[in-house]
């Protein structure tokens, strides 16, 4: 793709001024509210980077032999949400992982079909809803409580897990930026 074909968004931003759903008028107050605000922002970022693309583009691998694709990121983040919120934070480690048979964490064998896209986004949104329901049930006072990540290992705090979730989304939002740029040249925050 040549530089004259690049679509650089709206003056370096992804959406026109005032149309970005990630922007809020009020700043979050409190530790948990801040974590939730960052999670919301990065979840929306991943969704925006996938917006207006068909199954072929969403499943496109940018740098073969890597399995990395936008659709793979959505599947992976559904798995990450499920593992951390449903298994670890809700203390249900016996719950089978999503895509447990995929050692790549959701990136392998991504099908470029509308059915695959619908399934991936439905699963991801279901896991986000479950995570948000759990987050609605807690407050700042329990963020120091510990949860076992794996049987027999040292537990980690809820706070650390939430920061890890933000880190996971932030890292993959960077991947999504690059993937989207290879598809249609669109860039922006």
TrEMBL record:
InterPro entries: DinB/YfiT-like, MST-like. This is Mini-circle protein. It comes from the Bacteria. Residues 1-26 are annotated as: Disordered. SUPFAM superfamilies: DinB/YfiT-like putative metalloenzymes.
């Amino acid at each position: 793709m040549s530089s004259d074909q690049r679509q650089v968004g709206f003056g370096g931003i992804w959406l026109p001024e005032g149309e970005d759903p990630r922007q809020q008028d009020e700043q979050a107050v409190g530790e948990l509210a801040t974590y939730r605000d960052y999670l919301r922002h990065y979840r929306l970022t991943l969704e925006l980077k996938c917006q207006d693309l068909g199954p072929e583009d969403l499943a496109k691998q940018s740098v073969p032999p890597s399995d990395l694709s936008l659709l793979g990121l959505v599947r992976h983040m559904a798995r990450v949400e499920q593992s951390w919120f449903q298994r670890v934070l809700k203390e249900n480690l016996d719950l089978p992982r999503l895509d447990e048979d995929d050692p790549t964490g959701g990136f392998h064998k991504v099908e470029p079909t509308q059915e695959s896209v619908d399934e991936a986004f439905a699963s991801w949104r279901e896991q986000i809803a479950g995570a948000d329901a759990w987050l609605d049930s807690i407050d700042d006072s329990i963020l120091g409580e510990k949860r076992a990540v794996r049987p027999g290992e040292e537990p980690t705090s809820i706070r650390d897990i939430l920061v890890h979730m933000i880190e996971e989304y932030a890292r993959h939002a960077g991947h999504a930026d690059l993937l989207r740029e290879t598809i249609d040249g669109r860039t922006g925050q």
